[in-house]
Amino acid sequence: MSFDAAITYAERHTLHALLIAVHGEIAVTRAGPGWEMTRPHALYSGTKSFWGITAAVAAQDGLLELDEPVAATINEWPARSPQAAVTVRQLLTLTAGYAFGGMGNAVPTPERALEIPLKDEPGAVFTYGGVPLQVFGEVLRRKVAPRYASPHAYLEARVLARIGMTIDHWRRLRDNSQPLPTGAFVTAPEWLNFGRLLLERGAGVIDAARFAQCTTGSAANPAYGLGLWLVHRDGELAALYASGAGGQGLYVLPARGIVAVRFGQSASWNHAAFLKRLENG
After folding, report:
1. In the prediction, which pLDDT does 263 show?
2. Which of 73, 90, 141, 246 is the most exposed place for a label (fewest CB within 10 A)?
């Protein structure tokens, strides 16, 4: 497979780095002007892709259940408050009821995120944003303490170390915390490692049933699982991908054995258009 159309599309949209692997073998390596594959790149909201898998690992470790109420851990929320009905799964599928926002420079600290009121009934509406991930981060922080110092320490020990993946560094907020919805800086080969985990349905990290939870959408949005976008055709999962501002993307085509990473900067980048070119080889 030459992937000429995918390469051409990537190069037309301010390419920084492009990696494509087929059945574990690197098929395409392209770096844009001034970029190298060893240079860490901001994932922006592509960072969300880590936390559904991490939640599944935490469930497997017996630390939480996806459908447990968040208020069981966040005891600051009154039992009769609207937030009392929010579940861990709803935080990760972005259906908890929070309004749009809380991304980029507007990511709230965990303390502030817990104070933000809901806009919609939990489970009723899909709304993209960063607040739910910050609330999930506080849930996970309390679940993994005192053994792990932070959600990030748990992610690194229980997921990334097991697949040989390294995150170069994390952005920090004004309270010195590291945001969950955005903030990871990773090289293209390292994000490709995470894509291989997705291609292998969590093998070596979580069982297939728990991985399936990560790639199951909600009633409000069947095309979004636990931090991952989903593409279905004829009732089957044809592709899944992680997406970040500027067109950062991690793409997995299970039936074709393809994993691809694209870094760049383009307001016109279209994930569906790139996936189509990947599929056609």
Report:
1. 98
2. 73
